[in-house]
Amino acid sequence: MMKPIALLTPTYRRDLDRCALLCESVDRHLSAASTHYLLVPDADLALFAPFTSKRRVVLAASHFLPDWLRPLPSFIRRNRRQFWWSWRAKPVNGWHIQQILKIAAAIALPEQRYCILDSDIVFFRDFDLSRFAHPRPIPLLARTNEVSATTPCHARWIQTSHQLLGLPAAELPAEDFIGHVILWDQDTVRALAARIETTTGRGWIEALCRTREFSEYMLYGIFAQTTAGLSTRHIRVGGTPCASYWDAPTLGRDELTDLLRRADKNAVAFSIASFSGTAVDAIRTALVGHERRLARSASASPPAELATPC
Questions:
Q1: Is 290 in contact with 257 (CB distance < 8 Å)?
Q2: Given the DSSP bridges, would you call strands 83-85 and 92-93 parallel, antiparallel or unpaired?
Q3: Is 239 helix (H, G, I), strand (E, B) or coil?
Q4: Residue 157 pLDDT > 90, yes or no?
């Protein structure tokens, strides 16, 4: 029996407008999804409450975090980042918490499959998730030889993933498992958390807080690829259906229009890194223009022949 896939989006107040655009595009273009969960800091619940609908639920971060991990007061910030503290590890910031929330929610929520969507993703084509429903295999992003000494952050995340999973030290170049519109299998996530606890002798959240330099996607990808019995749940792929812009320069209307025009035919979404400073209104305007061009193109196409000649 096929079971629908849930959507997971960890977000917070600074991404409110981007999350609104994501939700609009999800409602317009995604089918065969069950519930869209928004995972937000407790202090931001009121801000995100208007997003609640028949298919969307807003959940507090504290629902998934242990009691010993607490947010520091809002006035204690560095570079406008909120931090969580405990007596068990050094403070972690919101970026760490969002990664932890993805894992914790995939473990605790009732669905067996999850599609993870960051706030800066926007869908511009229809996307049917039913082909990835349980028990069908899901794509496992694995970009060959993408991690090397020239990508030091990714290289560190590879090494800490191997340490947390009790694997031999990684050799570079290595595969990269980080991307957008990533699908996870619940049984795999639960087994991943159990492996971290067996390896470290600590709860998996404490182990990640102590490590601090980790990537949830690296952990999942390496674990799924190196653990016997998980191959039937996943199919290796070299990319995702999302066109990603990771650079810093701000994009204007012309650049956004060009990005949409050049998007691969298999791309159903795009992501503009929030640190680029690209305005949400500019993205929305580019989307409207893109849909108008598609409508004009469709209306200008010659009608299909309805009858065959005698």
A1: yes
A2: antiparallel
A3: coil
A4: yes
CA angle 92, 86, 84 (to 5 degrees): 35
Distance, in Å, from the CA atom of 290 to the CA atom of 275, rounded to the nearest integer, reads 24
Q: What is the distance between the alpha carbons of residues 58 and 48, in angstroms, rounded to a whole number?
A: 7
Query: What average pLDDT does this structure show over 198-218?
Result: 96
Model confidence, pTM = 0.92
The pLDDT of residue 78 is 63
Cβ neighbours of 207 (radius 10 Å): 19
State the pLDDT at residue 80.
Answer: 63
Residue 187, judged by CB atoms within 10 A of its CB (0-12, 13-18, 19+), counts as middle
DSSP state of 134: B
- CA–centroid distance for 275 within its chain: 16
What whole-number distance in Å separates Cα of residue 186 and Cα of residue 138? Answer: 12
* Longest distance between any two alpha carbons in the chain, whole Å: 84
Question: In terms of C-beta distances under 8 Å and separation of at least 24 residues, what long-range contacts does 74-83 make, across chains too?
Answer: 74/43, 80/14, 82/12, 82/41
pLDDT at residue 271 is higher than 50: yes
Instruction: Select the more confidently predicted residue: 38 or 131.
Output: 38
Helix count and strand count (H, E) for the chain? 9, 17
Give the pLDDT band of residue 309 (cuts 50, 70, 90). very low
Q: Which residue do the tokens 């196409």 mark?
A: 301
29-39 residues labelled b (16+ CB within 10 A) or e (exposed):
bbeebbbbbbb
**Residue 77 pLDDT exceeds 80:** no
What residues have CB less than 8 Å from 1, skipping those under 6 apart? none
SS3 state of residue 275: helix
Six token digits for residue 118: 């960051």
pLDDT at 254: 85
Token pair, residue 172, equals 């570079």
Backbone angles phi, psi at 290, to 5 degrees: -65, -45
Please give the Cα distance from 100 to 254 (Å, whole number).
Answer: 37
